[in-house]
Write a structure and sequence with these properties.
Length: 66
């Protein structure tokens, strides 16, 4: 479940960041800039980060071993 949430959140974050870069590029140079695969790359990064955070959360909530 964490992977799916990370993929979706990363993809939407990538879309937002790509649009911000495009608008800033358009305002500064008149040419819309941006990165072609930024949403896909951030989706993969988001999935990895979500898994790492989920495992750390599970590790902290586990009862201590004797």
């Amino acid at each position: 479940m964490a992977v799916l949430i990370g993929l979706v959140a990363g993809f939407f974050a990538g879309l937002v960041v790509d649009q911000i870069i495009g608008v800033v590029g358009l305002l500064t140079s008149g040419d819309p800039g941006g990165f072609r695969f930024l949403p896909v790359v951030l989706a993969a990064v988001g999935a990895v980060v979500a898994v790492v955070v989920d495992r750390q959360r599970q590790h902290r909530s586990a009862p201590p071993r004797r």
